[in-house]
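Record type: ASSEMBLY
Status: queued
Input:
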Amino acid sequence: MATTRPPETARTTAPLTMFDKIWARHVVAEGPGGHVLLYVDRHLLHEGSAAAFARLARSGRRVRRPDLCVATADHYVLTSPGAPPPDAEIARMVESLVTHSAGHGIALFGRGDARRGIVHVVGPEQGFTLPGLVLVCGDSHTATHGALGALAFGIGSSEVEHVLATQTLWQRKPRTMRVTVDGRLGPGVAAKDVILAIIATVGAGGGVGHAIEYAGAAIRAMSIGERATVCNMSIEAGARSGMVAPDETTFAYLRGRPLAPDGEAWERAVADWRGLPSDPDAVFDREVGLDAAGVAPMVTWGTSPQDALPITARVPDPGQAGARRPGLERALAYMGLTPGTALTDVTVDRVFIGSCTNSRLEDLRAAADVARGRRAVVPAWVVPGSGLVKRAAEAEGLDGVFRAAGFEWREAGCSMCVGMNGETAREGERVASTSNRNFEGRQGRGARTHLMSPAMAAAAAVTGRLTDVRGLVG
Amino acid sequence: MQAFTRLTGVAVPIDLPNVDTDRVIPARFLRKPQGSAGYERYLFHDARFDADGAERPEFVLNRPPYRSATILVAAENFGCGSSREAAVWALLAYGIRCVVAPSLGDIFHQNCVKNGLLPVILPADLVAGLRGQLHARPGVTITADLQRQTIAAPDGGVHRFEIDAFARQLLLSGQDEIALTLGYEAQISAFEAESPAWSRPRG
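Status: finished
Output:
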């Protein structure tokens, strides 16, 4: 309807956040209870979408806009070259995506396609994700796409079915939160350390009901891959979406990508995108600030992503935790840690470098810089985010660096971040991991996860313990 | 979807904050078809059962008074983490129709509404008080009334909760949300007709 998308200049004079602007231009209709029918420009699908496809078929409905969908196999594919599927159920999950995509005319990056990879790496890489769009996926880490200035959020299976059938979602407008990271990051400090520090500050539930915008000099200085790492873990702070205003870095990243606009459409798109950033005096419901210079390399010690500390710290003492004591005791018992232990004295059994948080080319370069000329003393996996990331890394010889250092160079996929494909750690094993969740059982029943940056994970691989990477590089 | 109007049932307390959906249903069960035989066993599986499949007696749902629970009273940020709707399916398969908490993970919260499971948000101190009553008198019941938007506690206290009108209407009617939205086809098509060319994928 004509009234749903007013030109920017005709809007009210009240200053708007980027979130407000994107939201307003996607309202198809108003519903009860403050809900609006929100248009969805992009829908990413993976093996986990099977249940939604099945219900859609049972109700005799079709996919309304297959041209706005892209599917890729990531959660259930194996990342060991040439390995047979561990069981029929896992194989069936991948087959089901192939069948449903073909049946509905949805583009699929399947096995053998170099474009196949983790859904949140593939979207930006292909230029499927664009600034100012609403993008959804049945995966909580969909906020990753906010790195390009898209309003991107994870949805459940029922909502996936709803988007397939209608290309819309009923949504209630969340509150807004701006996280400003000023200053410059020190040597050896990465985007992962920034987001872990943010989560430790606001808490695992601090962003519930909010849409986050990340701002400030330290965010502006980041590459798109680094911004993706930050936005990716918005859900670990409780927020469904997190985004960064598009700028010259964004435009340079997107230009020439296969699904991004070109020619005159590109010029129009960029002109539109320049109007997206929050107005200077826009008001956010909540503001959080962080000084980049004060961020150290971080590791988690517990079973919630908020349980993060600088690597120079010690395992906390439940006796000084007040009301949080029972939770802390349980976390330390699960993690097999003694209060007061220096984090750098904690030994690890295995290292995982990968996941939608940290599997892009810049992540692999950071890990390779630490691995180069050293030797892994525990099993260490490197799982690129996509076939194209793998190819690019190989073109600059990173696979050789990892192999020479005794790391295992694998195929693209979600792998041990979530272990749905059977790639899990053993009971009691302690994993230094670049993934996003240190929940109980996340990487396998009884497995103990410490979250950290790719450089920190590589440092743990070559020393066999949690290590301050600043002592190994620069 | 099954409608929700009013429910009186045994309530079980879960005291830990930030209970994630990986804990509600571990990833290895996500390849099991929704609602397949034995689905109720996946709920809190690794906390409820040991590696040999035997019940852990210390887990709250394994204690006899709570086994028949249909209402779960949780702590802050219950259902955080993964978007897996299977967390709601596992709760429903077990028989849980209502979750009361100071806050819920956003995606889990939406998934509850889409499946006829009533999410009730109440102040933290009040919810802690409810859990305290459930610990003190295991097996007591709570009444959740969506029509009146109230929770009746074991001690006789009646507490009003807020729920947005859209979610309330969906839950009370059990209506098919997609059918509702398909009624907006004209608006959706008009919206699409106005979308700029650059906003569509190339090719």
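Annotation: The longest helix of chain A spans residues 88-104.
Annotation: Residues 42-172+247-273 of chain A form a domain with the Aconitase; domain 3 fold (CATH 3.30.499.10).
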